[in-house]
Amino acid sequence: MKNVTDSFVSLGHWPSAGSWGFNTDILATNPINLSVVLGVLIYFGKGVLNDLLDNRKQRILSTIQNSEELRRGAIEQLERARALLRKVEIEADEYRMNGYSEIEREKVNLINAACDSLERLENYKNETLHFEQQRAINQVRQRIFQQALQGALGTLNSCLNSELHFRTISANIGILRAMEEITD
Q1: Secondary structure (3-state) at 22
Q2: 19 and 1 in contact (C-beta within 8 Å)?
Q3: If DSSP codes are grouped into helix, strand and coil, which group holds residue 161?
Q4: What are the TM regions of this chain, as residue ranges (predicted)?
């Protein structure tokens, strides 16, 4: 403490300053100035500093509370979104499975319809072939009958004379009358 008082007392040793003057010794005056300034700042600035720190503390706490509320809201939204996603995935799986089963049913129906059409076409083809065979057989029979009839007529005409011809016609007419009497 002696140094502190000596720095004030040493003002009288300066020849140019007289009884009052400035102490230019930085090492001796600086701690005193700093202690005075700090003392004034602490005394007067304590309330302002406390208010600033309290305001800062309140803003930080309100920011933390808002962040917590936002985090909780985000977590709730995330859970709702996850639940909705699970629901949509379940519905998508159901639609997919229903779609697959519907596709399988349609596939089976198309295969059955194609088989039925093929069977009908096969039957139609077989009927057409049978019809054409019968028609060809009938045409061949008609030609053979016509040729045989022409051959028989030719043979008869060459072999028969008019009297033999007349007797054959009379015999056939007799057979027809006998058949007519039987049916009546």
Answers
A1: coil
A2: no
A3: coil
A4: 32-49
| Nearest partner of 83 among 71, 75, 93, judged by Cα | 75
Q: Which two tokens stand for residue 36?
A: 């005075």
Q: Which of 77, 118, 172 is nearest to 164 (CA)?
A: 172
- Span 139-178, pLDDT tens digits: 998 999 888 888 887 876 777 677 777 888 899 899 988 8
DSSP calls for 156-184 = HHHH--HHHHHHHHHHHHHHHHHHHHHH-
Domain boundaries, the chain: 36-143
Q: Using CA atoms, how far apart are residues 152 and 172, in angstroms rounded to an integer? A: 16
The DSSP code sequence of 34-95 is HHHHHHHHHHHHHHHHHHHHHHHHHHHHHHHHHHHHHHHHHHHHHHHHHHHHHHHHHHHHHH
- Residue whose token pair is 């500093």: 49
Nearest 10 degrees: Cα torsion 85, 88, 93, 95: -170
CA torsion sign for 119, 120, 122, 127 is positive
Express each pLDDT in 120-134 by its tens digit. Answer: 999 999 999 999 999
